Amino acid sequence: MSDTENNTHAAGSKLGHEPTPNASTYIKPDDIDWAPTRFEGIEIKVLYQDKDKGEMTCMLKWAPGATLPFHRHPELEQSYVIEGSFYDHDGICRAGEYVWRTPGSKHETKSDEGCVILAVYRKPNLFRDGPAY
């Protein structure tokens, strides 16, 4: 056996060979209704949330002309654009593209044409009047 095969075999032995029952949660976003957010023209489908940690994975649908007001990212934020586009002072992110933002960064985000994005938050965005969710 090669070193790689030995390491893989050893790791598998430590992990065991039985899958964990009910450890996967499958979500069908089409079965979830869009819900309003407190931001005009922006709706949400929550795919995963851990309120104690502040984590959330969601889909956001922005109407044409929607703006997410100036806010700060306390942790890393990741967004993948499914359709349309949105932008800030640093650039534009179009369908099939991805953007992430550094912890502590601040900006306002807009969408002229509307968009649907998949967003992953480690902590909620912070606005003047408190957290986003």
What does this protein structure show overall?
The protein is mainly beta and 133 residues long. It contains 1 helix and 11 strands; from the N terminus they run αβββββββββββ. Strands 1, 2, 3, 5, 6, 7 and 9 form a 7-stranded antiparallel beta sheet that branches. The chain has a two-stranded antiparallel sheet with strand order 4-8. It is globular, with a radius of gyration of 19 Å. The termini are far apart. The model has no long low-confidence stretch (mean pLDDT 91).
| Low-pLDDT segments | none
Report the top-level CATH class.
Mainly Beta
Principal-axis shape: globular
Straight-line distance between termini: 52 Å
What is the domain tally? Answer: 1
What is the chain-wise order of helices and strands? HEEEEEEEEEEE
Number of DSSP strand runs: 11
The CATH architecture comes to Sandwich
Q: What's the pLDDT, averaged over the residues?
A: 91
Strand content: over 45%
Largest sheet: 7 strands, antiparallel
CATH-defined topology: Jelly Rolls
Question: Could you outline the blueprint of secondary structure elements for this entry?
Answer:
Elements (H helix, E strand, L loop, with lengths): L2 H13 L19 E2 L5 E9 L4 E8 L3 E7 L4 E12 L2 E4 L3 E4 L4 E6 L3 E7 L4 E2 L2 E2 L2
Antiparallel strand pairs: 1-2, 2-3, 3-9, 4-8, 5-6, 5-7, 5-9, 10-11
Descriptive key words:
single chain, 133 residues, mainly beta, Jelly Rolls, 7-stranded antiparallel beta sheet, two-stranded antiparallel sheet, 1 helix, 10% helix
